[in-house]
Amino acid sequence: MGLLGGLLRLFGRGKPRVVDANGGAPVPVGTAEVVSTGGVGGKGAGINSSNDIKKFKPDLLVIGLGNPGAKYDGTRHNVGFDVADGFCASLGGGDVTEPGEYCEAMCRAALCGVSRKSVLVAKPLTYMNLSGDAVGALVKRYGLGGERCLIIVDDFQIPLGKLRFRKEGSPGGHNGLKSISAAIGAGYLRLRVGIGPLPKGASVIDFVLGAFEESERVDVASMVKAAAEAVAFMIDNGIDAAMNKYNG
To answer: Using CA atoms, how far apart are residues 90 and 161, in angstroms rounded to an integer?
Structure first.
């Protein structure tokens, strides 16, 4: 397992469990709901075990793209997975469930930021080129439009360490985004995470499916942390504020 997998890999395939917000023993996922005396996502809200996760009502979908399986851990193409993991790691234990498989993705229910918004964090299990199958299923299941769906994706045309938010746009040659656009249209939010530049003469496939160089790994870990913080900022402040803050 690579450095990123070792530091940030939180989406296991063991029996899913959820942390009780009141400090009790973990209970199986499939029974996760956001509850609060002030309403869903209100002051004092936490993840509780009172209902089926299928009844969870997220304000936003946050979906990191990548390929499932240990052999892809730490590869450039899996930065979306790593950012999703890092984002969940930044939340308090009572504010995020452990993973459960749903709609062809590993999913976690979460309460995020000062705004305490309800967020479903997902990592498709379909492999990158079929990401739209999982994203389309989640969007349909929760009845959310593209403006409430943030896709986190690697981009070799952006220098390593740089981040770029977009409201919509073309896939830019990225097969995962092509699949998603075919499934739900192009009007979804995205956070492009720089893994470039592509070395002169290098194969795109070999580059994105390759592991980061040892000399890059400290910078990669810093980038993943910054991207996770950027996701939290966007949730609290909106896409326009995030674009103004992070786009270079």
So the answer is: 19
Q: Please, what is the angle between helix 175-184 and helix 131-142, to 10°?
A: 40
User: In sequence order, which ranges of 56-169 are alpha helices (DSSP H)?
Assistant: 79-90, 131-142
Strands (E), the chain: 17-18, 27-28, 33-35, 46-48, 60-64, 100-102, 105-112, 117-124, 149-159, 163-166, 189-196
Check whether 217 has a pLDDT greater than 90: yes
Q: Which residues of 120-158 are buried (b: 16+ CB within 10 A; e: fewer)?
A: bbbbbbbbbebbbbbbbbbbeebebebebbbbbbbbbeb
The model's pLDDT over 14-44, given as tens digits with 9 standing for 90+, comes to 333 333 333 333 333 333 443 332 233 333 4
With a CB cutoff of 8 Å and minimum separation 6, the contacts of 203 are none
Choosing from 17, 76, 77, 123, which is the catalytic residue? 77
Query: Which residue matches tokens 């299941």?
Result: 141
Within 10 Å of residue 230's Cβ, how many Cβ atoms? 21
| pTM for this predicted structure | 0.82
Residues 6+ apart with CB under 8 A from 202: none
Radius of gyration of the chain (CA): 17
d(Cα 162, Cα 141) in Å, to the nearest integer?
33
Distance of CA 117 to the CA centre of its chain: 15
Q: How far apart are CA 66 and CA 240, in angstroms?
A: 26
H or E element in which residue 217 lies: helix 217-237
Domains of the chain: 3-246 (3.40.50.1470)
DSSP annotation of 199 reads P
Q: Is position 174 annotated as part of the catalytic site?
A: no
